[in-house]
Amino acid sequence: MRHLSPLERFADQSLVIRATAALAVFALALAGCGSVMPGSVVGDGGGSGGAVAMTGVGPGVTDESVKVVFVGVDLEAVKGVTGFKTANAGDPEKQVEALETWVNANGGVGGRKLDAVFRLYDAQKDSPAAEEQLCKQVVQDDKAFAVVLTGQFQDNARPCYAMEKTLVLDATLVATDDATYKKHYPYLWSASYPSYDGFVRAYVQTLSEQGFFKGRKQVGVVAADNAINRTTMEELAIPLLEDAGVKPEVAWVDTTDQGSLFMGTGQGAVTFRSAGIDRVMFLGGARLASIFATQATTQEFKARYAVSTFDNPAFFVNNPDMLPASILKGMVGVGFAPSQEVGDAQLAFPGTDAEKKCIDIYSEAGISFESREAARVALPYCDAALLLQAGATELTDDFNAGAWGAAVESLGSAFVPATGFTGALGPGKQAASGAYRVIRFDDSCGCFVYEGGDVDFPTS
Question: Which domains does the chain carry?
């Protein structure tokens, strides 16, 4: 059978529908709804001044208040354009106001008032220039001590804040490895998600234990092509896969724009089909799983897929009209953020003490959520606010990122993110999520379910 060219495929109405579905996925990746587009980093953890300050006050700190900018994206606007089905995440600005009110009524931030500023970012126009502009607004106009980021995917975003000595509490599902956290210490932290290194180890280990590679000599790996993922693949993922007995055939995908994204995933499907590969996994996020599955359908490529939280498994369940049902059969992987992967019928909502605390905070402000998925933005916001508060408890005159970072390290695993299962902070650890669970698609319920309990992310 002759395979249609890209132009011919887009001329075919049925394939236009599939392409539109994939475009919807891409647009929502830019909106920061559980997606990832990891990027390279520049600069050093000491900011523009080099050494990390441990005395004095940081930007945005006065005797009375601490200014923190919460960045939000308009998910409902994106849904209106794409038709993507997902639970309504509510009003992020009101959620930030609720957190500000609660924190200030419960000791503030080191005895100072939390001055929370909300900025809405147009994720559909995401670009390096747009993110640099936002960074300048936060550090120059707002003069903020910290920024809570959602929907920020370009290479220059996090280095920009670190160079300006502005604390970043990253609430975006971005694949940030240990080396990047170390490079930007003490300015880069995640209050909700794990370090990428531990995730990759857990992912490969779980797939091996679940028999995903059984009887296979090769596995297809769809990988985002950027500095962090290149390094992680070459130094960690590929050796781990080879130790598991399979040779990875890597399809590198440039995820910075729609054209390269479609070209890379489409070519990957052709390569895997030609090589007779029928097991595919994804590393680097950026909704590669959803878009690849769509492209694979047009290329008549069939395989069993491995997925993770980075691939937003809920997408596959919520949008059955966008992809064939066969795509879901046998899906297995790892999950560390329930709001991105399982329904409330599979895990009671709210569940953990940390999750209940955040839901209670919003409830006091008259904010409710129809499901855990609907709280997928509010929970990371809450994690960031509570971690900021926890790290500032003993800070007085010396209220700066260096002193705050040292205090947060001392919290260890006692800080548990509402977004996940267990805590993991400590010396040299800047990502708060400490455990994952095995996820599997269950044909009987047509949903993803957890198998077994919490498993600590491996460190080596």
Answer: 6-32+197-344+437-456 (3.40.50.2300), 47-194+351-433 (3.40.50.2300)
